[in-house]
Specification:
Elements lengths: L6 E2 L6 E7 L3 H6 L3 H9 L9 E6 L2 E9 L11 H4 L4 E4 L5 H15 L14 E3 L5 H18 L7 H15 L2 E6 L2 H4 L3 H7 L7 E7 L6 E12 L8 H4 L7 H15 L5 E11 L11 E3 L5 E3 L7 H14 L4 E6 L3 H7 L5 E4 L2 H14 L4 E2 L17 E2 L7 H10 L8 E5 L3 E2 L9 E2 L4 H11 L2
Parallel strand pairs: 1-6, 2-4, 2-5, 5-6, 9-10, 9-13, 12-16, 13-17, 14-15
Antiparallel strand pairs: 3-4, 7-8, 8-10, 11-12, 14-17, 18-19
């Protein structure tokens, strides 16, 4: 990652950067010299969102003006790091604390390049942090972790490496850590996690982290960690398989969120559960038509081996419920249907509790990190009917994200507030601050919701 190199502390050589909304432009322009006003007019600069103007001086470059929209949207500032020339820049405008934090976060998101295998074409311009917002930088670190983990190919981010990342974060914060792997999953009654991952040369596993004071509210975080999804015996076509290194994006979100909660020392008790597998094809791959009795005792007929995410999650959710948390949040790159319905930028939120859903939606608005609530429409359980088992894991192309969420809900204890985020964890193309590849979607709003829950 390169986002951490986006900041400087010494303002002595930094050039001034004027941050302007369009409504502020006329007043700012009027303070400039006639020659500079002529330059501004010649460039047709009016401080429209996403624009930038370099300001000339007697010795070359004298500064710049940055046009933004919503000052509380981090991405409003994200065009600056690669729009500005390389060098250090200091804020020459007055921003309130919330806008300043958004700018620091947005600058880091805009400076990000995944550089593990390819050196960036140029360095990012650096923002001088005269007033550091530590929380904004911790949030940035969590977002960058998600991007890095999702961008890393499966050969270097399989179940072993995901476990190592979780183990490292646990060690940083003094959390308890446990891994249940391979055939021990069967001995410990996690049959669906084992079934999905048993054909890979890398053992399936449940990664468990616990942290916090038992007197604090208990939140369980569950993540789908399918480190590569071939589709199994119901193999995906090449185009559908191409980016399936991203299918552990839910686990990346859950792990980064747990790390952020611990870094900020929120008064919560956290249980993190990551179901880490590779859905591969081999002699012992699980098959369509098999029936698996899950941890919860619910028998499931395998209609489609490519509906594997809900299988690994159902055992993890059942185990989470056994811990009797105050709420369960799960994150998963679960369905293409959610993308068809809402597109790549809007994660689909499902919840069995209106207060929990409203809290997440409120946080999404405040952080400009949107989610969109979708219905848990129980009549659609008919699409998961099996003739020989309690439930099928798939069965219809109708309401695919809804039926997936309904399947998961079956494994959440009655009365336990639960929210499920079906997130894309990916940008299909490059935009300022949103490079093509892995992305944290719904992470910032989830954190803000948990922070607000702490009062």
């Amino acid at each position: 990652m390169t986002a951490t190199h986006a900041y400087a502390t010494d303002a002595s050589a930094a050039l001034p950067l004027h941050v302007l909304q369009r409504a502020q432009f006329d007043a700012w322009r009027a303070t400039q010299s006639p020659a500079l006003q002529a330059w501004i007019d010649a460039q047709r600069f009016v401080a429209a969102p996403g624009t930038l103007l370099l300001l000339p001086g007697e010795e070359g470059l004298a500064g710049a003006a940055l046009g933004i929209g919503d000052p509380l949207d981090a991405y409003a500032y994200a065009h600056a790091p690669f729009g500005l020339p390389v060098g250090d820049w200091r804020l020459a405008s007055t921003l309130d604390d919330a806008a300043r934090a958004a700018m620091q976060l947005g600058w880091g998101l805009g400076a990000y390049k995944f550089s593990r295998y390819k050196k960036p074409m140029r360095a990012a311009a650096r923002l001088v942090l005269e007033q550091t917002d530590a929380e904004a930088l911790d949030v940035l670190d969590a977002c960058v972790r998600v991007r890095d983990w999702v961008n890393t190919p499966t050969e270097h981010m399989g179940p072993d490496e995901l476990e190592a990342a979780a183990r490292d974060i646990a060690a940083q914060h003094g959390a308890q850590f446990e891994v249940i792997a391979g055939d021990e999953l069967l001995a410990r009654n996690f049959p669906t996690i084992h079934a999905v991952g048993r054909a890979s040369h890398r053992a399936p596993r449940l990664i468990a982290l616990s942290w916090g004071d038992a007197a604090h509210p208990h939140i369980a975080l569950v993540g789908k960690g399918v480190c590569f999804d071939s589709g199994g015996l119901d193999i995906k076509p090449a185009a559908g398989m191409r980016n399936m290194k991203k299918d552990m994006g839910g686990a990346a979100h859950a792990l980064a969120l747990a790390g952020l909660v611990m870094a900020r020392k929120l008064p919560l008790r956290i249980t993190l559960l990551l179901a880490a597998v590779e859905n591969s094809i081999g002699p012992n791959a699980f098959r369509p038509g098999e029936v698996i009795v899950t941890r919860a005792g619910v028998s499931v007929e395998i209609d489609n081996t490519d509906a594997e995410g809900r299988l690994v999650l159902c055992d993890a959710l059942a185990y989470a419920g056994e811990q009797k948390p105050d709420a369960i949040l799960d994150f998963a790159t679960l369905t293409g249907a959610a993308r068809v319905a809402l597109g790549p930028d809007l994660p689909a939120l499902f919840a069995n509790d209106d207060a929990l859903a409203s809290a997440w939606l409120d946080a999404a608005g405040a952080t400009r990190d949107p989610v969109w609530r979708m219905p848990l429409w129980n009549p659609y359980l008919r699409y998961l009917t099996s003739g020989i088992a309690d439930l099928a894991n798939a069965g219809s192309t109708m309401a695919g994200s809804v039926t997936a969420a309904l399947y998961l809900e079956r494994f959440v204890p009655t009365g336990t507030p639960w929210a499920h985020l079906d997130t894309y964890a990916w940008n299909d193309n490059d935009r300022p601050g949103r490079p093509a590849g892995g992305e944290a979607l719904g992470l910032r709003s989830a954190y803000a919701m948990l922070k607000a829950r702490c009062g």
